[in-house]
Amino acid sequence: MTGDAADGPLILGLTGSIGMGKSTVAGMFADLGVPVFDADAQVRRMQGAGGSLIARIEEVFPGSTGPEGVIREKLGAIVFNDPGALARLEAIVHPAVRAAREAFLARHRDAPLVVFDIPLLFEKGGSEDVDKILVVSAPADVQRARVLARPGMSEERLAAILALQMPDADKRARADYVIDTSVPLGETAKSVAALVEKLVH
Fold first, then answer.
1. Which positions does UniProt annotate for ATP binding (predicted)?
2. What is the model's pLDDT at position 152?
3. Residues in the annotated binding site for ATP
4. Number of domains the chain contains
5. Which residues define the annotated binding site?
6. Residues 119 and 46 both lie in one domain
7. Which of 11, 14, 47, 134 is most buried, most CB within 10 Å of its CB?
8. For position 96, what pLDDT does the model report?
9. Axis-axis angle for helices 39-47, 83-107 (nearest 10)
C-alpha cells in the first residue's frame, strides 16, 4: 500500500488525539495542493443520506438509520460499551474505508505526496499503511480547553474518549514528525509548508 518514487506517492499518515488540531493541519496540506484523504469525512458520506453503508448498517443494527442516514445517537447507544457490537460495526465500515482509500490513491498516483488523515492511526494498526507519520500535538491544558468548548462535550465524555486513545506522549515517540499546534496558526502553517518541502524535494 505504501508508495515510493517508482510506484506512487509518498504516503504521510496524519494523526493526533482529540483536540490536537488535526483537521486544521489537514486543511493546511490541502491548501498547499497536497491531496488529503479524510477518513472521518469518508465515513460520514457513507453513513449519510443515500450512503453506501446505510442498508448494511440497518440490517445489522435495526432502527439505527433514517431518511438522513445513520442516526448517530441511536447507533452510538447500541455500540457504546458493547465491544461485540462495535466490532460488528467496524467490520462493516473499515473495509469500505479501505476501498475508498485505495481508489483515492489510484486517482492521485502521479502526486509526489498524499496525506491520509486517520484519527486512530496507531490504535487501529494503520501505521503499516503509510510511509511516514506526522503527529499533531499540543499541551494537555490546551487540548482540554479546545475539546470542552465543543457543543455537547463534558469532562466525562472527554475522559472516555481519551481512555480509548493512545497517550499523546506515546504517539509523539512513534512519530517521524511532530507539529505543535499550540502556537499561532501562521507558525503551524509554516511548519506544514516546511515539511511538504522536505518530503517532496
1. 19-24
2. 86
3. 19-24
4. 2
5. 19-24
6. no
7. 14
8. 94
9. 110
